[in-house]
Amino acid sequence: MASIEELDIVIRRRTSGKIVASIPQLSLYAVGNDTYSALSSLDDKKKRLLDDMKEADIPDEFDYLPSATTPAGTRMVTQPGSLSQFALKALILVALISLVLLVPAGLLAEKARKDMASLSIGGRQFWTKLETQLSRGADPSSDLPEAKKQQILADLRVVVDRWRPYAAELGRFISDLRGDNAQARTSCN
Asked: How far is Cα 142 from Cα 134, in angstroms, rounded to an integer?
């Protein structure tokens, strides 16, 4: 609660050159040719309002609500129930965020479950498919041309020769870890 003297006064210059002084919270406005006369007129209206309030036996207390024209950082008195309103808004926000995150996650989990169910490992279909693929691989018509085979084999020999010293050392390392007495054989290029 605030007295009338604690409420904000806004002063504006109009395009007509007149000055308007106002207390927006009370809808009191006064016009003058300069700032002093506008404030004087507003002060007169304020006194008349206070006299009317005193005559009606109404205390000089107003809810302080900053006007839209007041600068940021103006103090504001909170209304009762503000904490419960905040809690309700926070609950609604948490529910919306949960909904936005959990619904797609549920849909994704359902799709993954269906995909895993359709993936069959074992069973008659699996073995039939394996036999078909094996037959297709063994079919002479699907064989590679001889030149291609020789090229692949030459490439494999080069790769094996490059990696053989590393594999030999790795074999010795593994046998040492197992505690084998036999040394891994290394072959030289």
From this structure: 11
Parallel/antiparallel/unpaired status of strands 10-13 and 28-32: unpaired
37 by Cβ neighbours in 10 Å (0-12 / 13-18 / 19+) ranks as middle
Q: Which residues pair with 23 in a beta bridge?
A: 28
Give tens-digit pLDDT for 104-149. 898 898 888 888 777 766 778 888 888 998 998 888 888 888 899 8
Separation between Cα atoms, residue 98 and residue 102, nearest integer Å: 6
Q: Write the CA distances from 136 to 60, 130, 141, 146, integer angstroms.
A: 98, 10, 9, 18
Of residues 157, 187, 155, 156, the one with CA closest to residue 171? 187
Q: 0.85 cut: is pTM over it? A: no
Helices vs. strands in the chain: H and E counts, helices first? 4, 3
